[in-house]
Amino acid sequence: MAPHDPRHNSLVRWIDARLPIFTLLRREYGANPMPRNLNYLWIFGALALFMLVAMIVTGVVLAMQYTPNTALAFDSVEHITRDVNYGWLLRSLHATGASMFFAVIYIHMGRSLYYGSYKSPRELLWMFGVLLFGLLAASAFTGYTLPWGQMSFWGTTVITNLVSVLPGGQSLTHWLWGGFAMGNPTLNRVYALHYLLGFVIVAFVFLHIWTLHVAGSNNPLGIDAKNPKDTLPFHPYFTVKDIFGLALFLLVYAAVVFFYPDYLGHPDNYSPANPLVTPAHIQPEWYFLPFYAILRSVGGVWFLSAKLLGALALAASVLVLFAVPWLDTSHVRSARFRPLYRPAFWLLVADVAVLGLCGAAEPQGWRLVAGKIATTYYFAHFLLLLQLIARFETPLPLPTGISLPQPAPLDGHAIKPDA
Ligand code: HEM
Predict the structure, then answer these.
(1) What is the whole-number distance in angstroms between the Cα of residue 151 and the centre of ligand 1?
(2) Domains in the chain: how many in total?
(3) Is cis: bond before 121, omega within 30 of 0?
(4) Is residue 215 in a domain?
(5) Cβ distance 154 to 141 under 8 Å?
(6) pTM value?
(7) Is residue 414 part of a domain?
């Protein structure tokens, strides 16, 4: 046993003999060999884990004061912010936490796309990730409804109305609302789901991490770490890196919570919901804007309404991600060695940014046209470009090992061999 192994302690040994949790933790997190060249983009999974715990803890405490009733919800949130001891802090941590969580997840997804972490043998790991993204979106959407402000009310109206495109349309919407209009039953359902979803996410994170530990982590070179010299134990090398990254992340999170708690919120949501007054411009939170743009960019064709096609495009924009491991047929994982995929990745990032800007603007004039072009490009990237690139690209020569002399890759981040 290593000198710092907790199993030197007799109580730990007693428990471990009956429930080998310490042996498991040591195998999976202590001695677990990790590729030695992981860069700081590999801390974002740990940051996502941190945000998940932070959201559940602050959410459970907020729920002790929140009232899920349309007549009281808005005031109960104001009460938490103004009267409850440190209620402002709890609320700010939770509300701005949603934005921080999405920022972390988007970087985590971007990293996985750039370094080809979705490719064999990590397809299922990626698919659990996409599922987590969908669950996270559902959780953020239901959470935003709870303060029952103007934007909560009208945003939920727009999105729940989308189910009316399904067969049985209007009655399905009424069934979802629990009445002929959004009201108390709707708020109660949304609240119950919001509370539940956090724990469903925990269950899927468990599967996500399980699949990660079967395949092991990918790395910036995208090659398998076969040689023992290619790896370092998770602890202390990567625990320290994760903790340092977390400290930097907490500085940014704290700056938003303490100095700009309302910056990301829409002003209309600081007015109580009013079913008789529609806001001038209904808009979701920033992290949904690209998807909102896709929803609004699709027009009707023939007998298919714009609403139906918009809803289908919105669903397809997430569903297409499940198929990415099979849509990208190149055998090279990392964009560092893929001269055509690399610019295509950055074009996709720019495209999603353009979609975000279009989602924030009125869908008129050139912005509507830009939204349509960006939506077409988004789907073309996954459904067409990935295969074309794989076919015509000549990848750079791959290194044979992580700790061996490296040929200079595209971004110049060559790894020096060990002394
Ligand atoms: C609640 C949300 C999530 C949590 C808590 C989470 C957590 C983690 C953790 C701890 C890791 C290992 C560390 C790392 O590689 O950064 C990881 C890896 C990974 N995650 Fe996630 N994740 C989440 C969502 C997602 C999403 C939305 C995707 C993609 C759609 C995704 C795809 C991946 C992939 C492909 C890896 C393997 C990366 C590699 O080895 O290169 N994850 N995740």
Answers:
(1) 31
(2) 1
(3) yes
(4) yes
(5) no
(6) 0.94
(7) no
Assess contact for 352 and 290: CB atoms under 8 A: yes
365 located within any domain: yes
- The answer to whether residue 87 is domain-embedded is yes
Q: Provide the domain limits for residue 88.
A: 35-392
Mutate to test the pocket of ligand 1, among 38, 112, 206, 241 (most ligand atoms within 8 A of CB): 112
Report the atom number in ligand 1 closest to the C-alpha of 43: 16
pLDDT per residue as tens digits for the range 316-367: 999 999 999 999 999 999 999 999 999 999 999 999 999 999 999 988 899 9
Given ligand 1 and candidates 39, 130, 132, 327, which is best to mutate, with the most ligand atoms within 8 Å of its CB?
132
- Provide the CATH number for the domain around residue 221: 1.20.810.10
Q: Which atom of ligand 1 is nearest to the CA of 118?
A: 35
Query: Which tokens in the block code for residue 262?
Result: 């309302």
- Which residues are identified as catalytic? 213, 217, 241-242, 285
Q: Do 134 and 333 contact (CB within 8 A), yes or no?
A: no
Beta-bridged to residue 35, according to DSSP, are 231
Tokens of 265: 């919120």
In tens, the pLDDT along 130-158 reads 999 999 999 999 999 999 999 999 999 99
Question: How many whole angstroms from 255 Cα to the centroid of ligand 1?
Answer: 25
**Residue 115 and residue 129: Cα distance in Å, rounded?**
15
Average pLDDT per consecutive 10 residues, the chain (419 residues; last block may be shorter): 82 96 91 95 98 98 98 98 97 97 98 98 98 98 98 95 88 95 97 98 98 97 92 95 98 97 90 94 95 90 83 97 98 97 98 97 91 98 98 95 72 56
Q: Which atom of ligand 1 is nearest to the CA of 42?
A: 16
